[in-house]
Amino acid sequence: MTLAEKVGQLNMVTAHMADTGPGMAPLDLDAVRRGEVGSVFNLWGAENTARVQRVAVEETRLGIPLFFGFDVVHGHRTLFPVPIAEACAFDPDLWQRTAVHAARETSADGVDLTFAPMLDVSRDPRWGRMVESPGEDAWLGMRFAEAKVRGFQGDDIASPHAVAATAKHFAGYAASIAGRDYATVELSERTFREIHLPPFQSALAAGVAAIMPAFTDYSAVPLTGNAAILGDLLRQSWGFDGVILSDYGAIAELVPHGVAADLQDAATVALHAGVDIDMMGNAYLSGLEAAVEHGKVSIDLVDTAVVRVLRLKHALGLLDDPFRRMGENGTWEAIASKGRDLARDAARRSAVLLTNRSGTLPLASSGGPIVVAGPLANAWREMAGPWAGAVDLEQNVSLAFGLEQALPGRELRFPSEDEHGAAMADAETIVLCLGETAEMSGEATSRTKLDLDEDQRRLFDFAAGTGRPLVVVLFCGRPLTVPWIFERADAVVAAWFLGSEAGNALADVLTGAWNPSGRLSVSWPRDVGQIPIFYGQRPSGRPLGVDPKYSSRYIDSPNDPQFVFGHGLSYTAFEMSDLRLSATNLKVGESLEVSVDLRNSGDRAGEQTLMVFLRDPVASVSRPLLELRGFASVFLEPGDSESVSWTLGPEAFEGLDAGMRRTIEPGVFEVFVGPCADVEQLLKVSISIEEKTIN
Ligand code: BGC
Description:
The protein is α/β, with parallel strands linked by helices and 695 residues long. The protein contains 20 helices and 26 strands.
């Protein structure tokens, strides 16, 4: 290979395919012909990718196939819930199954690699990309990472049904200061290691093919050029030998970041850090050859990156058959038609019932008129949320449509604005569909206010003023700070953006055809001023309540969130009892079995999620008040009981000591089990861990 041909393999370009249909205008096929392109993204449709692949294979000197990448963040042609919502299902098996299906659709549509899963542990809802993330908890993020990587990649990424996964954005992007996208990041080494890195380690353990560094910096060095993090940590210490591909234009952005003088310099910094592929930065293409000539970059370094890219192409099976994901696997249409049931099930498991006063929900199958109103009532396109590139939005189901299907025996009214008064006055129930539109969350959608606009507020006030039972269905990509809704509405459902089957799934939840089981994957703040807010905080020396004045508190707001991590109601009730451990003493390195009895004490069948938290109350460093270490969901008929158990391996008790070493500090640990991160709702027992004695 010539140096130019090698550099071409490291260059990834977009085909700018529009959301609206197959048009691939700006992709320069001559650049492909000249061997300047190694991979293409934002192109799908087997015919489209095959056309470009043919140029690479038949018209370049070496005939090396391209690979095709795309953001399949929550489904490809069939949309599943946005990740922040799907995380609320607390169901690794579901997370994996939706990724398997997404991989099948994607791989039948000409695409080899997805830029997913997104694994940024997110504690700041001002940052719009929280919607793409599995929420605030590192342990939950780890389970999400494994499930998604396994689902996308299967046992072998050479399979024509599988796609390579990319864990992104490595790492700490969600901590962008003040929630402003692309801004600088302030993170302690401890928080970086304890909270932001673990999901990526799980992705690696599951065999993830690629990693995408974040746009942002860690400790003042942009990750795209951060040799300590990409080189020393990811490559050397963790042994990652897959492909590191930059985010969109991120190598070129090393210049405005202030760590490179020009594109040649940026290319030098990024390649030294270990970035193999330049996505849309044009830095490798325009700068690497000169950098090699000037001795700034060794040819060995270029070769190493090229070998990684070729190995990925080989692993994807492209060197054997460059067209293997272009129709051989069946058409995506045939596969997508089988995804709707899964999409509906995933969606209803992801909705969270936040409040429900005096049994306002579920809606009965017969009764007086129900008024369905609000800007999101019939907004089928919005149900997609962000990252819905290849989707035919017309296929999405709105809540209005879903309710019509679900309640044939009831009069549903969909009044226009000037009919609200008359329609609502004699409604038996009002269902208001409020929230954000899809484009208000996702990349580059930071917000300083998480409230609703004036029009929605007025509509709500009007509906609440009628005194009729009022249900609010809240569509959003992040928690919204709307305490005025929670105070006055009789029931509120967090509907997020639930994907293709959103309307049917929400109708299932509202009518009780599905007894709601979703649990918040993020703490829901009362006010923007509480952000960042998350359950896993370390204790204060002056905790709330010890002194009326000199304690850690606000003078104008409670400390606790509107809804705690794990909150989510059901139409039935559950009781826990008899929390027990397999031992009262453990030696360092031993496992512990935790069990509890759970009973459905209500009058409907339903599913309950229980969580296990640990706390190390006295250690050499201050440990968080609660740390998630397990969860499980149990379905119970009314009156039935079951014993639920978890095995906590030794790693569950580990923490980073003052020297950042993973270690178990002997002593007492507290074990909590319950439905959410509110200590009042948790059962607690203690266990003592003793030093291992060597005889
Ligand atoms: C986003 C990535 C995405 C990439 C390619 C970037 O703007 O940050 O998450 O994978 O574009 O579409």
